[in-house]
Amino acid sequence: MKMKWAFFSLIIICLFTLTGCEPLMVLDPKGPQAETQANVIWLSIATMAFIVIVVFALLIYVVTKYRASKQSEDYEPPHIEGNPIVESIIVGIPVIIIIFLSIVTVKSTYDVEATPKGYEDQKPLTIYASSSDWKWHFSYPEENIETVNYLYIPTDRALEFKLYSYGPITSFWIPQLGGQKYAMSDMVTTLHLAASVPGEYMGRNANFSGKGFAENTFQVKAMPQKEFDKWVEEVKTSAEPLTEEKFNELLEPGHLGQLTFSGTHLTFLPAPEGEYGGHHHGSTDSHEHDHDEHAQQDSHEKTNEHHHH
């Protein structure tokens, strides 16, 4: 009896506690990419809940129907061979479920890796997001400004993040706008996002990268395009220029507040992409460069062979 009341008390406490919790950020999307991922999560939860309910219902039915009963000591149950229909069901249904979830996962993965739907015809805002111990540097090459530990973005516009790191591998993540993606020191990865609702969101490094990992966060503020353009002009006229010496100081391990600069570090320390990038990650430019390099090499070999003859 005591165990029964303790169990019910625990359920009541959990219900009261959960009613005061804010919704999970990944289930409170503010952009098309995050909405796609949230829909997949809900679909997965519904599928798993259906399976659990069916399995427990069958368990209760079997335990109730085939429970032990008073039989004579010489009773022998009938010999039953395997049932092909039952075996087909218990094997076929899990296979169908896996195929269904696989199709949903692959399709949604392609969707979130591409430019958000509805934004294909507009030019995206390109932002270089680089991490260091334990900071985030956001470079706006077209606007020629740079921020540290905070990110301003326009709403209703495609965002193209170029991710890399000046230290260990980190993971760029704004839960309400989309999924996380790794930032590495010798290559650039691309993440497509968009914000459809103005507001302030939390961003962070989702990959453990040392003792300062817990505070490796940044603030994201989404605003209409006009407000964003006004902020850019204010930064250009009022922020101090970012020098190479200052940027090297920023790369030193430690935590900093929010900083703003005119100019970007890309002018004197480009991102690891293009001709000198360690990995091009499927870049067509890199293949063209390799093709040109091989063509030049073949040309030199033919010239040398001609002189030799």
Automatic annotation (TrEMBL):
Residues 276-309 have a biased composition (Basic and acidic residues). The keyword Transport applies. Its EC number is 1.10.3.-. It is found in: Cell membrane. GO terms for biological process: ATP synthesis coupled electron transport. Residues 122-234 form the Cytochrome oxidase subunit II copper A binding domain. Coiled coil: none annotated. The chain crosses the membrane at residues 40-64, 85-106. Residues 268-309 are annotated as: Disordered. GO terms for molecular function: copper ion binding; cytochrome bo3 ubiquinol oxidase activity; cytochrome-c oxidase activity; oxidoreductase activity, acting on diphenols and related substances as donors, oxygen as acceptor. It catalyses: 2 a quinol + O2 = 2 a quinone + 2 H2O. One of its GO terms (cellular component) is plasma membrane. It is a multi-pass membrane protein. Residues 18-116 form the Cytochrome oxidase subunit II transmembrane region profile domain. Keywords: Cell membrane, Electron transport, Membrane, Oxidoreductase, Respiratory chain, Signal, Transmembrane, Transmembrane helix, Transport. It comes from the Bacteria. Its main location: membrane. Catalyzes quinol oxidation with the concomitant reduction of oxygen to water. Subunit II transfers the electrons from a quinol to the binuclear center of the catalytic subunit I. Belongs to the cytochrome c oxidase subunit 2 family. This is Quinol oxidase subunit 2. The lineage of its organism: Bacteria, Bacillati, Bacillota, Bacilli, Bacillales. The gene is qoxA.
